[in-house]
Amino acid sequence: MSVRPKKQLGQHFLKDPGTCQKIARQILWTDQTRKVLEIGPGMGALSKFLWDLPQIDLWLLDVDIESIDYLRATYPIYEDRILFGDFLRLDPSSIFDQDSFIVVGNFPYNISSQILFKCLEHRDQIPQIMGMFQKEVAIRVAQAPGSKEYGIISVLLQTFYDIEYCFTVDEHVFIPPPKVKSGVIRCIRNNRDQLPCNEQLYFKVVKMAFNQRRKTLRNSLRALLKDVPLDKKFENQRPERLSVDDFIELTVFIEGISKKD
Question: Which of 189, 209, 224 is the last residue of a domain?
Fold first, then answer.
């Protein structure tokens, strides 16, 4: 029995044991949680190495019922932890109650950014995200300010996670081989529990700034500034030059404008 990779699900199954083992070793173990959720396990190439790690309790989640049937037949002793479902629609409390859990996986390329934003939504329950993405996405998430790759997802993930690009994976270790290389990143929850500004406004400022990234901030954020001049530190800057702390400072400034009305 085997599982056919499905293009509509963005599936590229890992076939190289050495790569799988290397990915599994990237997880940093802490005393926060033993619980790990692997998203999109496919035929369990990575799962096999995760189950060999004594320090974790592993659950598998896949939207592909064919993969679920294969995994339950292959690993019958773990049947109750092999779950059919869509992570993007998942309420984590249905599996983990309010406990913390680590997210890992060879994430489907077509929804990998959405997976990260879902993790961001539940960040207080997810102390670590470790997995493989299309290399372009992995670089963008981990990128520091000052480059064209730095964007919305870079800022928002780095607001709450410390991110490390671990290594690149070549095309030939997958079935079918993707047309691009992949990158493995590790995201560790930082100590920024609550922003000193309105979080919704912060997200809005970041998105507005990058949606018009060729414009200076005084122009891209004009609707929020209400004709109030920006501090000279920001007025002629473009968003890719700003750090997370800069965006927080900028949002605090804009929030102050709203409070004056």
Answer: 189
25 is a domain residue: yes
In 160-190, which positions are buried (b, 16+ CB within 10 angstroms) versus exposed (e)?
bbebeebeebeeebbbeebeeebbbbbbebe
Reported pTM: 0.92
In the chain, the number of structural domains is 2
pLDDT given at position 213:
85
Tell me if 72 is assigned to some domain.
yes
Question: Which residues pair with residue 37 across a beta bridge?
Answer: 59, 103
Report helix, strand or coil for 33: coil
Q: What SS3 state is found at 205? A: helix
Contact 79, 60 (CB under 8 A): no
Provide the domain limits for residue 216.
Answer: 199-260
- Asked if the structure places residue 62 within a domain, the reply is yes
The C-alpha atoms of residue 182 and residue 167 are separated, in whole angstroms, by 9
**Same domain for 147 and 238:** no
**Angle in degrees, CA 189, 178, 40, rounded to 5:** 45
Task: Transcribe 60-86 into DSSP letters.
Answer: EEES-HHHHHHHHHH-GGGGGGEEE--
Contact 167, 184 (CB under 8 A): yes
What residue has token string 């996986």?
105
pLDDT in tens, 204-231: 999 999 998 888 999 999 998 888 888 8
- Residue 194 belongs to a domain: no
Of 139, 159, 189, the one marking the end of a domain is 189
